[in-house]
Amino acid sequence: MRIERTFWEKATAVHVFCRQEKLGGDKLVRHWSDLGRLDEGGYAAKALADRGLGRDVAVHKQCFFRAKDALGHVIDYMEAVQGSLTLVPAEPMLDLLRKDYRSMIDSGLLLDPNPESFEKLMERCGALATRANASVSASDVSI
Fold this sequence. Notes:
Blueprint: H1 3-20, H2 30-40, H3 43-48, H4 51-64, H5 78-81, H6 93-106, H7 118-134
Helix pairs in contact: 1-2, 1-4, 2-7
């Protein structure tokens, strides 16, 4: 799988978790961590330049991975690639993620001997979402 597709797969998954406002398991913060590493490596910028690939991922997920938000509305994956990507959840989910991150660090799942703080990771993901949403052009948005 192209690394740019991995970015869009991860970004749309995180988007859904944020909209659902709950975690359906543990070690899910790995997706946020992966997005941070992809951004750090320059792969996020390449993925953001390929909105067609992002749309392909959104269409696939719309067909096979329907999900509902915290209010019970069906989540539109296309929003994530057309200027409304959400990568930082609201409280109290942030607290759940913070605990999940600490658990991942304590269990050695992160290979980095000095992992960034949870706050820095959320800051990085917030900045990534801002860049992703700001880089959408009119031709990226389907009518």
